[in-house]
Write a structure and sequence with these properties.
This protein has about 170 residues and is mainly alpha-helical. The protein folds into 2 domains: about 110 residues; about 50 residues. Helix content is about 70%, strand content about 10%. The protein has 7 helices and 3 strands, in the order H-E-E-E-H-H-H-H-H-H. The chain has a 3-stranded antiparallel beta sheet, covered by helices on one side. Strand 2 and strand 3 form a beta hairpin. Helix 2 runs antiparallel to helix 4, helix 4 packs antiparallel against helix 5 and helix 4 packs across helix 6. The radius of gyration is 29 Å and the shape is elongated.
Length: about 170
C-alpha cells in the first residue's frame, strides 16, 4: 500500500474523533489510527532518538528491525494507560506472533505520520524559541546594566580613595 492509497484511505468520525482506517496488506486485518496525542509523540521521539552506546553493532541492527512494530503499537494505542498496559504486548504480537514485515506495517505508520499535528507543533516550537531569545536578550541587557552600575560604583570609590590618599601625603 503506497502513501497515495493511505491518503485516500477511509476516514471515519466516532464521538468527535477522526480515525483513519487502514488495512494490513496480505491480511484481512483492519486498524483505526487517530490523531496522535502528546504522549504518543513523546513515545515516538523516545523510540527514534534512543542512544544505547553500550550495545554492539549486531544488537543495534536487531533492535532496529523491531522499530516498525513498536511504532505501529504506539500509533494504535492512543490512551496513556492503555499504552502503558498493552504496548509491550502489542508490538511483540506484531513482531513475533503475526510476524508482520515492514511493508505490512507501513500503512499504519503512514497513517500515523499523516495524523501528526506537526503544523501546530512547529508553530508552538517557533513561538517558544522566540520567547527564549527574548528572555536571553533581556537577561543580557539586565547583566550589562548591573555591570555598568557596579563599575560606576567602583570608579566612584576609586576616585574617592585617591583624593584621601593624596590628602594624607
Amino acid at each position: 500500500m503506497k502513501e497515495e492509497e493511505v491518503q485516500n484511505a477511509q476516514t471515519e468520525e466516532i464521538d468527535g474523533l477522526t480515525y483513519t482506517i487502514v488495512e494490513i496488506p496480505r491480511t484481512k486485518k483492519v486498524y483505526k489510527v487517530r490523531t496522535l496525542t502528546n504522549n504518543q509523540l513523546e513515545d515516538i521521539a523516545r523510540l527514534l532518538f534512543r542512544t544505547d552506546e553500550q550495545k554492539t553493532t549486531e544488537e543495534t541492527i536487531i533492535q532496529d528491525t523491531k522499530i516498525a512494530a513498536k511504532a505501529a503499537a504506539i500509533y494504535l494505542t492512543p490512551g496513556f494507560w492503555k499504552r502503558k498496559l498493552t504496548y509491550w504486548f502489542k508490538w511483540r504480537w506484531f513482531y513475533y506472533i503475526k510476524q508482520y514485515d515492514n511493508a505490512q506495517l507501513q500503512p499504519i505508520i503512514s497513517a500515523g505520520y499523516g495524523s501528526t499535528p506537526y503544523i501546530d507543533f512547529l508553530k508552538t516550537m517557533s513561538l517558544l524559541a522566540n520567547q527564549k531569545d527574548t528572555q536571553m536578550r533581556m537577561t543580557v541587557q539586565e547583566a550589562e546594566k548591573i555591570l555598568q552600575e557596579l563599575s560606576s560604583k567602583v570608579n566612584l570609590k576609586d576616585s574617592g580613595n585617591d583624593s584621601e590618599y593624596n590628602d594624607n601625603k
